[in-house]
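Exam revision sheet. Question 4 asks you to relate a sequence to its structure. Input first:
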Amino acid sequence: MKRACALILVCLLLMATPAFADKVKINVTDSGFDRSRLLIQQGDTVKWNFSPDNQTDHEVRGPFFDSGPIGPGGSFSFQFTGAGKYAVEDVLNPSATMLIKIPVLAEPPMGPIDTIFLISMGNGPPDSYYWSVQYKYPGAPGWVLLFRQVGGSFRFKADHGPGTYEFRGKTHEFAKPDHTD
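Answer key, C-alpha cells:
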C-alpha cells in the first residue's frame, strides 16, 4: 500500500511539473555556423556561442533579432515563440547562413472528415510581420494556403476526408513585396 501511495505521489508531482523549453546551442566560428539547418519547437531558445578562437567579431541576425557585434568567447540567445521558417545570417560573415524551422502545432494530429483541429502558431510576430499557414490534406498534390494571421491559434474543420493533415507556417514582412506563401 505504501508503495502504491508513493507511486501515485510521484506521478502527481511529475504531472504538476511545468514543461521547460529546450535551449539549443550553435557554435559560431570564423568559418561559420556549426550547422546550416535546425528544427526546434515553439518556445525553444537558441544560444549562439562565439568561439574564443575567433579572430574577428560576429553578428547574428534573424527576422526579429540582431545580436550586434559580439567578440570571441561571447554568446547571444533568442527565444523563438512562434512557428515558421527563420533565415539567420552572420552579418559580418555573409557566407554563414542557417535556416531555423519551427512547426505549427495541430491537435489532434489526424482525424476523419469533420474533425476539428486546433492549430497553434504560438505568440504573434512583431508588428511588421505576419504568418501564412498552409496545409496538405490527404491525397493533396501540394501545399494549399489556409490563411494569413499575426499569431495565436484557430480551429480548422477537416474538409478533404480522413487521414493525416499536415500544417506549416511561414514568416513574412509586410513591407516586403514577396508575399509568396
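Marking note for examiners. The chain has one helix and 17 strands.
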